[in-house]
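## Example record

The block below lists the input lines for one assembly entry, exactly as stored, with component labels intact.
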Amino acid sequence: MITLSIILQAVATAGLAKFGAAIGAGIAAIAAAFGIGKIGASALESIARQPEAAGDIRSNMIVAAALIEGVALFAIIICLLIVL
Amino acid sequence: MKHIHRLLLIAFFFTSLTPAFALVSDEAEHKTHQVSTKKKKFETGNFIMDHIADAYEWHVFSYGDFHFTAPLPVIVYSERSGFHFFMSNKFHHGHSSYKGFELAKDGEYRGKVVEMVNGQQVRPFDISITKNVTAMLISMIILLWVFLSVAKTYRRRKGQEPKGIQAYIEPIIVFVIDEIAKPAIGEKKYKKFAPFLLTIFFFIWLNNLMGLVPFIPGGANVTGNITITMVLALFTFIITIVNGNKNYWKHIFNTPGVPWWLKYPVPLMPLVELMGMMTKPFVLMVRLFANITAGHIIVLSFISLIFIFGEMSPALGLGSSVLSVAFVIFMNVLELLVALIQAYVFTFLSALYFGMAVEDHH
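Predicted structure tokens for the full assembly:
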């Protein structure tokens, strides 16, 4: 416990907040990539199963991707506010 | 074809007329600072924030030490001294104060007009025509010009095939009505909301595109300003509330199919539904703001990479500039797509909320 408090004290001057913001931005990027990857995969599968519906599937995929991207960018803005 | 040429000529005149309301060349002033600012370290954070944030003057271009900045009107109302209307070059880029007003250098009002009252920074009622307001006015003029002429062409050519700019705009209008308004709101009720949906679609799309152009009259981050997206989301919210029918309010305050003890005595379900009603416009606001601002920040960061590497060594700067420029071109093309997608998503979700507000009982 004592070593933990010493470490925390040493790190606090080195900008722990910026470290947290960087990790947060990385997690947001991973989460967005994961979500949109799933959407893209299922969209491609459905287009392969029914090529005539490609137009409808494409527009729905873009809408869902934009909604997920909104949430991810919300997290990015918070991390940016910490850094700046 | 003549119609298009006339339009392009007018657009060109707009771009050359904009800096005409008092252009100031700051060469004389900057000569006095020249010695101290010769080798300034490149500040990435300030560089990015200067291009993202709003400003009281419009920086047109710089050539070495020569900066061409167009000053903009500052309109403030102070409790103590009444209305003031002056051009922002009185501030001399934040170096001098004017009639008690100055640009705050630090603190929570950094970069904004403040009044020093008893040593404290007080923010007056500020309705200045800042860079974002000017850019919004320019895009409003473009939108009004295009759509009023399209409307006139429709009246003149009733029943005939579309001609000129009408032929370009009509498929986009038909797309918004047929793919966004009608499926979301329904065949019978979409007409009431169609003007608003078309307006915000073209407004957001045009402002997104103009924010990507690096020179005047583009280059002002309009839709990346959270107050502007807040007002757009507020419009959607108010229209949803005003047009909510009995079925809509019943779903919020007395959700059918939910057990009674969630509504009375502690109204948990209505609270949850109300929070859902509030978060929808809030997320609309943040989504548009974050997407556009993040795109601009990414492009600016890649450009700053060149300067950061250039300070370490000129060879490294040249080498990284090739890669950076390639990435910047890719990001800008992606941002063109994002401009359209964000306008589409905002309009589509607004139409969805309107549809939910006027939905009949089924």
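The first helix of chain A runs from residue 2 to 13. The mean pLDDT of chain A is 87.
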